[in-house]
Write a structure and sequence with these properties.
With 508 residues, the protein is an alpha/beta fold. Helix 5 packs parallel to helix 6.
Length: 508
Amino acid sequence: MTPWIIFTIGFLLCAVVSADPPNIILIFADDLGYGDLGCYGHPSSLTPNLDRMAANGLRFTDFYTTGAVCSPSRASLLTGRFQTRSGVYPGVFYPSSIGGLPLAEITIAEVLQSHGYATAMAGKWHLGLGLNGLFLPTRQGFQHFLGVPYSHDQGPCRSLICFPPSTPCYGTCDIGETLLPVFIDEMILQQPVNFTELVPVYDKFNEAFIHNSVLKKKPFFLYYASHHTHYPQFASAQYTGRSPRGKYGDALLELDGTVGKLIQTVWDLGIQNNTLFIFTSDNGPETMRKERGGTSGLLKCGKSTTYEGGLREPAMMYWEGKIKPGVTSELASTLDILPTLAALAGAPLSNVTLDGYDLTKLILNGDKSPRNTFYYYPPSIDQNRGINALRLGKYKAHFYTQGAFHSETTPDPDCHVTAPLTEHNPPLLFDLETDPAENYNLLKSGIPKELEPILTQILNERDHFQEGMTYAESETNKGKDPSLRPCCNPDCTPKPSCCHCPVDYVML
């Protein structure tokens, strides 16, 4: 174990002088719905730290992720490019997947590391594992990594140790897969993961990384990709049973606790005026899990759909003394994070096609967003079909609609898996400014004369976008190889049950 990750409670620095370029902490939730946070209107979610971040920072009402499932959205976040360009489609990676985020793709971590930043990641990766860890974060610009390579339901639920131990886990998960591992850099630290003790270890890792970076007087980029609030939910002993919202609420409360610890660490070190926090999520909620799946609030449907509930996410940016507190309805996306951070850091961008915009004038000066369009891809991307929907200003046009298994159980039949792929010509058209729930199709009774120019502009924009899109070879369709499934005892038998390596997290 490298000494820099050892956490010492007395190892605190005070009144550290801020320096340019800014430190960056990017927090990415998992399957968090638009309506799940207190600051976005949920009546029983306890999210005091996120609520304070929203109150003291800039909260977005119209912020989008690019993929309605995990892997595509994470690829776009880190590269500033639609998942179609990197090949991270359709669907997601599994423990035995051959493919991963191509090493030729340039991530935020690589952009910032090349400009002198210390870089680290904790949490859920889900962009491939590959032979000998070929696709791990340490191959994509992160100098340090502590986390799980994929989703915590992509393995037997018995590896999701519940609290108390006698409590059965909620659901069956992927019982045919290997026990879930946690990696430190490219080495398996523990298998299976004791999730109820894992988040406190992430907290120590995060704090140690920040301390170490400040000691070395290096700007830092920390990417914390939380497992919360993905199903099946879990929480450490400190948070179990504390939320009136049940197990989902406990998981959300633990995520909020981590946010609080990160903010406190930054303030303790006196670097709050030179540290930017960004918070958002990868995709909408799994409504199929009912009370254990999150909520889209007033938005339609959820995960795996191209309705607003699948791709519009809570988001906020907080930078003490630099970002004026407020709420913005300007259009923004995870695609915009890479070019924005590069601009703030003064880091040059590589000569690749980016789909994001630099938002520095929006977040620092309150200017209009340079983004006026957004394009909605479904999980099952078909090059011949292209995007399912397009937003232009306040108008959203659906060219195709389809329900999804992940969006079951809501009263709306459009969300369910029984709602087939349906082409719409003319498209369904909604005014998201007055109708964010997508209830009232403006073209239901024909095309009003006053909307003809808007519809023409939307169709032209769709054609222009699709003509300019280059689809990379699919990485998720490259097949599976059971031998790639991680095992801490690679020569043991029988697999996967023999892949069992406990560790005492207290030693970290």
